[in-house]
Amino acid sequence: MELLASGQPTAPTTRPGRGAVGGFVATTGAALAAAGVLRTVDPHQSGHYPTCPFLAVTGVWCPGCGSLRALHDLLHLDLVGGLQRNPLAVAGVAALAVAWVCWGLRLAGRDAPHPTRIGPRWIWALLGLVLAFAVLRNVPGWTWLSPA
């Protein structure tokens, strides 16, 4: 351990272990495999994926309804189509992409924020946003939030 000019020890530098890098590689590989299937198998055609269980039981759209179609549209570079299917899913993909990049930067030894470490107020705000989205997309006249 090295000492600073003031006599204080420096923080030890740590390198990520094989498990951390392996987790990153495995997560990236699984996401790419899922994206490959979703890009190939079109959820716009019925019969390829199961119906949303919440929609089947209640007859109302949940916050996730339209997510597969939104992600399929994004994988085909159709941002407008993705936003029409589920704008919350598109925002979630953007947030996950930022978190993934930060994770990779931290593993590479770069200083990057840790977006998964959020306080309880942010968690409650996110829950409120998801609940408000779920309610508003089922309100008559708010069809612009419903999966098209």
Written overview of the protein:
This protein has one domain (about 35-145). The protein is about 55% helix and about 0% strand. The protein has helices at about 20-40, 55-60, 65-75, 80-85, 85-105, 120-135. Helix 3 runs antiparallel to helix 4 and helix 3 (about 65-75) crosses helix 5 (about 85-105).
Briefly characterize the structure.
56% of the residues lie in helices and 0% in strands. With 148 residues, it is an all-alpha fold.
- Average of the residue pLDDT scores: 87
Number of strands: 0
In terms of DSSP E residues, the strand content is: under 5%
H and E order: HHHHHH
The oligomeric state of the chains shown is single chain
From the helix content, strand content and strand pairing, which structural class follows? Answer: mainly alpha
Global morphology: globular
The main sheet comes to:
none
